[in-house]
Design goal:
31% helix; 8 strands; alpha/beta; GNAT family N-acetyltransferase; GNAT_dom; Acyl_CoA_acyltransferase
C-alpha cells in the first residue's frame, strides 16, 4: 500500500454509475455499520432525487456516499450512508468524498443538507445541530445536524423533514445503537 499521506491525492471523486453498484454493495457489506448493507441501492432506486458519489483509487471503488432529497425545507438533502473501505480510513478519503458531494449538490442548486452522525466529524464541513433544530424528525437530538449550502436556506424554517423510507429505517436502527 502506498504512503498514507499520498493516497488522498490520487483518489478520483466522481458520480457513481450503474456498473459501480456491485462494488458499492461490497463496501456496505464490509462496513462496521449495523444494517448498512443495501441502503445505497435502495436509495438510488427511489424515484426521488438522489446523488451518488464514489471515491476511486487505481480503478477500485474505496468509498461511497449518497445524498437523497428530503421533503420539507426547499431543496434539502440527507447525507448517508458514508462508507469507506476499512483499509483506507483515516486517510482523508471520507473528507474528500463528502466535500465533493457537497460541492456537487451546491452546484446543482440544492440549498441544505441534513445528516445524522458524529458532530466532531461533520462540523469540519460546517454542519451544526442548531441549524437542524427547526426540523420535526424522529432523529432530532445532538447528532442530528444540518448545513446550509445557500446562505440562510434554513433561516426561520420549521416543519417536518420527511426522509425516504429506506433511509429513515436505517437511521432509526442507528439511533438505537
Amino acid at each position: 500500500m502506498p504512503e498514507r499521506k499520498c493516497i488522498a491525492g490520487k483518489v478520483i471523486y466522481r458520480s457513481s454509475i450503474a456498473g459501480d453498484l456491485p462494488a458499492i454493495a461490497r463496501l456496505e457489506t464490509l462496513s462496521d455499520v449495523p444494517d448498512g448493507s443495501g441502503l445505497s441501492e435502495a436509495l438510488i432506486a427511489l424515484p426521488a432525487d438522489t446523488l451518488s458519489f464514489v471515491a476511486e483509487l487505481d480503478g477500485h471503488i474505496i468509498g461511497h456516499t449518497v445524498l437523497t432529497a428530503v421533503a420539507g425545507p426547499d431543496r434539502a438533502l440527507a447525507l448517508a450512508p458514508l462508507v469507506i473501505l476499512p483499509a483506507y480510513r483515516d486517510m482523508q478519503i471520507g473528507t474528500g468524498l463528502v466535500r465533493h458531494a457537497l460541492n456537487q449538490a451546491r452546484a446543482q442548486g440544492w440549498k441544505s443538507v441534513f445528516v445524522y452522525g458524529q458532530p466532531d466529524y461533520y462540523c469540519r464541513f460546517g454542519f451544526k445541530s442548531q441549524l437542524a433544530d427547526g426540523a420535526d424528525s424522529p432523529l432530532q437530538g445532538q447528532r442530528f445536524l444540518a448545513l446550509e449550502l445557500r446562505k440562510d436556506a434554513l433561516f426561520g424554517w420549521s416543519g417536518p423533514a420527511a426522509y425516504p423510507e429506506p433511509y429513515l429505517k436505517r437511521m432509526k436502527s442507528k439511533a438505537r445503537n
